[in-house]
Write a structure and sequence with these properties.
The chain is α/β, with parallel strands linked by helices. It has eleven helices and twelve strands.
């Protein structure tokens, strides 16, 4: 009862229109979240991969929460293809954005319900596409009741690799304009890592990828370096990773450790 009485973190305007279709241009205009982010202005261009990096507590996950409208900024505007997220229906925002994160575990229910979570009425051909892309058919073959197998809270009963595949499939179902990956590569096994690389290669939308891995950042189209809630540095990986700024410094200890 207390949970049901908890107010939403975002407020939806009555009869808010749906987001219009677009190419996936994501803009943060002077965005702040009290105690977490301050004055973030940045644009992720359509069909690019942006690696969001920085130390723990920098505000990276908060930035992705804004992009998915799990929270609203205390100041500033988040726009998708020129349209303010706050001015449009939550259902259409959720439909336009897919996300995978350690903070978004699988739910109790059947495997198929988990796969269809973002789009319950997805056509069978779209579900088949995602199952093939994310190698879900291999997971299904290992389960006693296939897609009807019931999963416990958090994906209990599945192996780590199986959970990773289902979480990624759930995020890309329907080919959303924006894909948010919040350290989704942090605990991937080798096959899962290969799978994520393949998804990033074929995905047609815009990606914000929070990562601590230099190879992931190097393969991105742009890097945003956050620290203490501020965007400190932004630019192409070839420039930032080879320079003397905070991005290069951030990864320097990791290079020493590897050697």
């Amino acid at each position: 009862e207390e949970l049901l009485k908890t107010p939403r973190l975002v407020k939806e305007i009555a009869s808010a229109p749906n987001l219009a279709l677009g190419s996936g241009r994501l803009e943060f205009q002077d965005v702040s979240v009290e105690g977490a982010l301050e004055g973030i202005t940045a644009t992720a261009e359509p069909r690019t991969v942006v690696a969001v990096i920085g130390p723990n507590g920098a505000g990276k996950s908060t930035l992705l929460q804004l992009a998915s409208r799990l929270i609203d900024p205390s100041r500033g505007v988040v726009r998708l293809d020129g349209h303010s997220l706050a001015s449009h229906s939550l259902a259409s925002v959720r439909r336009a954005i897919g996300a995978a994160s350690l903070d978004l575990p699988l739910m109790r229910g059947t495997l198929e319900q988990n796969l269809r979570y973002r789009w319950p009425d997805a056509p069978e051909e779209e579900l088949a596409r995602v199952r093939k892309l994310c190698e879900i058919d291999e997971v299904i073959a290992e389960l006693p009741q296939g897609v009807a197998t019931r999963i416990r809270d958090g994906g209990a009963g599945l192996s780590s690799g199986q959970r990773q595949r289902v979480a990624l499939a759930r995020a890309v179902l329907g080919d959303p304009r924006i894909l948010l990956l919040d350290e989704a590569d942090g605990s991937l096994d080798a096959p899962g890592d290969t799978l994520m690389s393949r998804i990033l290669e074929v995905y047609k939308g815009t990606v914000l990828l929070v990562t601590h891995r230099r190879d992931r950042a190097a393969a991105a189209d742009a890097i945003w370096y956050l620290e203490n809630g501020r965007l400190i540095e932004a630019g192409p990986p070839a420039v930032l990773l080879t320079g003397t700024g905070p991005t290069a410094t951030f990864f320097a200890p990791r290079l020493v450790a590897v050697s």
